[in-house]
Design a protein that fits this description.
By secondary structure, the protein is of the alpha+beta class. The protein starts with 19 loop residues before the first helix and ends with a strand. Helices cover 30% and strands 19% of the residues.
């Protein structure tokens, strides 16, 4: 998995550092953290996506949930139809900031062993999702 494809460039070319803002997907669905797991799975299926960006009632990004996470929760013996996304997210973050270089973002994601993570402004407003390309 990699974020960028390498292409040859002239030896005298100035290096260009692309940022997370250049690579993030801003078109994916954002949902509120009071949504139930069951509804989130339905939204994910209808949007044909493997993850959802989750925000609180103030519009601040609280995290990202994946289909695998939601499936594991719904398959657990403790699952009820009242479990909300905020119940499974835990602490806020980690986030990628738009000015983060793609190399730094990719390194951090590989270190955390995640394929996608939210991109947010410093104030916490969700901007999109940065995902490793398969």
């Amino acid at each position: 998995m990699t974020l960028v494809q390498m292409q040859p460039r002239p030896a005298n070319a100035t290096p260009v550092y692309r940022t997370a803002a250049d690579a993030m997907d801003t078109g994916g669905p954002q949902v509120c953290d009071d949504m139930t797991v069951e509804v989130a799975l339905a939204v994910m299926a209808s949007a044909r996506t493997g993850h959802l960006l989750v925000c609180d009632n103030d519009g601040l990004c609280t995290g990202l949930v994946t289909q695998a996470q939601l499936a594991a929760v719904s398959d657990s013996s403790a699952y009820t139809d009242r479990v909300q996304l905020r119940d499974i997210l835990g602490n806020r973050g980690p986030f990628t900031f738009p000015v983060t270089t793609m190399a730094e973002a990719e390194h951090a994601m590989r270190y955390r062993q995640v394929d996608a993570q939210p991109a947010a402004e410093e104030q916490g407003s969700a901007l999109g999702v940065l995902a490793l390309a398969g």
